[in-house]
Amino acid sequence: MAEYTKAQLTEMIIGKLQRNFGRTVEEATPNHMFKACALVLRDIMSRHQIETGNQVWEGQRRQVHYLSLEFLMGRSLEKNAYNLGLLNTLKETLEGLGFSAADLFEQEPDAGLGNGGLGRLAACYLDSMTTLEIPATGYSICYELGIFKQKIIDGKQVELADNWLGLGDAWLIPKLDETEEVRFGGKIEDRWDENGVNHPEHVGYTAVLAIPRDMEIAGYQTRHTNTLRLWDAKSPVPVDMSLYSRGEYLKAVEQQAMAEVIAKVLYPDDNHYEGKSLRLKQQYFFVSATVQSIVRKHRAQYGTLHNFHEKHVIQINDTHPTLVIPELMRILLDQEGYSWDEAWHIVTHTVCYTNHTVLAEALERWPQALIESLLPRVWQILKEIAHRYQGELERRYGSDQGKIAHMAIIWGGEVRMANLCVCACQYINGVSALHSDILKREVFHDAYLAAPGKFKNVTNGIDHRRWLSQINPKLDALIRDCSGGDEYLIHPEAIRKLENCKDDKSVLKQLEAIKGENKRRFAAYVARESGVILNTDAIFDVQVKRLHEYKRQLLNVLHIVYLYQQLRDNPNMDFTPQTFLFGAKAAPGYHVAKEIIQLINSLAAQISRDPVCKDKLQVVFLENYRVSLAEKLMPASELSEQISTAGKEASGTGNMKFMMNGALTIGTLDGANVEMHQQLGDENIFLFGLTAEQVNQRKREGYRSLDLYQRDHGLKRVIDQIAAGFDDHVSYSSITDRLLFGVGGSMADEYMLLADFSSYCQAHKRALEAYADRQRWNQMSLINIARSGLFAADRSISDYAREIWHVPVRK
């Protein structure tokens, strides 16, 4: 039941327009109207949040603090209205005031405070924690510029700044009275008191103010409200006006600029010293401010930190927030006067770590000299933690230097953040069954043998209310009709009732019609945005995710070139029309990934010009892939490409969004695909390729991709075509050289594209055979939707609450 009527909402919006913008409805622009609506919903959520805060305080409930350098929130107006039960009322109100609700929702910029799946997962988890009524706060940085806007110019990615705050700041509530000070540089001087106790003093430091800008998070069908705290960075030093008067303008604002750069842009490339330094500053800035804030509030309530670990759990989302460990130690030791053992007990019973990757380059390592100069007291504490841990390792492993070197926190002039997490955290979890198994069996094997109870698995999940109900309303209505109501929105496992209709031909026809309508709607959007006309009679085969070699967009390209060559050889062959859709951003400094984007665009341009391909084969690269684009694409997708090298993708969450919207998966047994396969069986998913164990075995045996190239004529022809390039005369031999010979000491075809190519082509044939049998395909699609409940974020968060956080959830 909506809390407010149309008349009440109308009055509130008109009031906001008048008081905040000095506008009547007739004078208001769409920007004014968007902000007025956002402020009205923000007020409602703020009232709920005050109630929630009072209940948590009075009940002395344990709180979850979710630290993540990324939160890919997307748009909030429609989502918040949906969760508050006000979406239909808001739409009617806006139409009554002469505005298009759809246009207004489209007006909002994406809050792109993340690079990809990690940040989107964090956003989904905030929604579920709130819906399940867990007292929780998310923490990150209030980046002025989110992930870049991607422009494709002459086939190449160009990065443009994404200033989302122009409209997005309507959601943010500054809390100036909760500002914290974070210190960088300087040195530590020992101060001994009369009892011979040392009180280290930080002198000569540069201070930066961390100012919270809070975003309220509404839960679904609950007044419980949580907060995403985004820290903004400001200098405490005012502008030196004497320098201004002497004309030294840049010097006058230098200190302010140095402070504010911390919150300027989503954490930068760290492939040069300046990037490393800024990234480390960002990481320490947000964890220091966060810990100080949590400690301050805890002390105000309880007067002591002895029970800190009983009332708080700090979840580290990947290694980026790892400095929370020495920072909490610093506060307990230096400010609160605890002994080392007391402080260590509190820290190790407060902090937990989610690992998101097995890629060695993503397990962060920092130069010890950088930490020493930037964070001198933290460096001292890190040295002591590392020294004590190394002593423990030496007692455990004796003279086995190999094991000690592998597990050490500081080694070879580097600080290893993942090893620090393994040493200090109460629990460590992977994000899919396969991934957690690899952590135990390979990445952290010795640590697992020493403390197996520390290691958990929590398979990732997605916000099914957003990624199904909200973005695919016709499918939502069909599920409700078939399962007798909307129970699945709070209890996602109830979506299984849909499977009772798998043999109902009228339901399968409705499902097909909904997919067709979604395809046409998406095609209309693409035509408006880019002028490209999609063939809606073709199967929509989609690969959207960050561009990374292990995700193997290049394998998809190899197969498309193979199909294209077949069509050129035999234009009259029996050919199922296929439209391949790509969406991906490459990290600005990742040159191979950017070259693959250019290759996709070269191939797309050639195929679009070739009359042989008309109404048969189409390749489209969707520019500037982002949350709001994904919300339009997922309901229209039919075949989901989840083709990473087995053992490389920790989980994936795009695979779950596709499944929930009725797309079928073509994929390897990697990440959460493994659990999807367990749910679906062989008959409802198209698997191919080597398993993780087979990949390792092939590498041990001395895998030679060149042998495959020379043996397989079809594959050789594809590789040769890519090396030579297309009509734009751009050669991609540097890409094919990596596949055949390796580059700079790396092994050839490190991600096993050529090894899996034949199997991948066969899987595509099986998928197209299934697609030709409409009843079979629609039944498979329905079964995918019905068995997707396991992959809801509500289930993931319930697992965290039970296994790791030990907090109750809403029943």
UniProtKB/TrEMBL annotation:
InterPro entries in UniProt: Glycg_phsphrylas (IPR011833), Glyco_trans_35 (IPR000811), Pyridoxal_P_attach_site (IPR035090)
Modified-residue entries (N6-(pyridoxal phosphate)lysine), positions: K657
Cross-referenced PROSITE patterns: PHOSPHORYLASE (PS00102)
Top EC class of this enzyme: transferase
Obligatory cofactor(s): pyridoxal 5'-phosphate
Catalytic activity: [(1->4)-alpha-D-glucosyl](n) + phosphate = [(1->4)-alpha-D-glucosyl](n-1) + alpha-D-glucose 1-phosphate
Entry's transmembrane regions: none
Annotated EC: 2.4.1.1
GO BP of this protein: glycogen catabolic process
Entry GO MF terms: glycogen phosphorylase activity; pyridoxal phosphate binding
Pfam families: Phosphorylase (PF00343)
Keywords of the record: Carbohydrate metabolism, Glycogen metabolism, Glycosyltransferase, Phosphoprotein, Pyridoxal phosphate, Transferase
A Gene Ontology term for the protein's cellular component: cytoplasm
Protein role: Phosphorylase is an important allosteric enzyme in carbohydrate metabolism. Enzymes from different sources differ in their regulatory mechanisms and in their natural substrates. However, all known phosphorylases share catalytic and structural properties. Allosteric enzyme that catalyzes the rate-limiting step in glycogen catabolism, the phosphorolytic cleavage of glycogen to produce glucose-1-phosphate, and plays a central role in maintaining cellular and organismal glucose homeostasis.
Family matches, as PANTHER family: GLYCOGEN PHOSPHORYLASE (PTHR11468), GLYCOGEN PHOSPHORYLASE, LIVER FORM (PTHR11468:SF3)
Family of this protein: Belongs to the glycogen phosphorylase family.
Name of the featured protein: Alpha-1,4 glucan phosphorylase
Taxonomic path: Bacteria, Bacillati, Bacillota, Clostridia, Eubacteriales
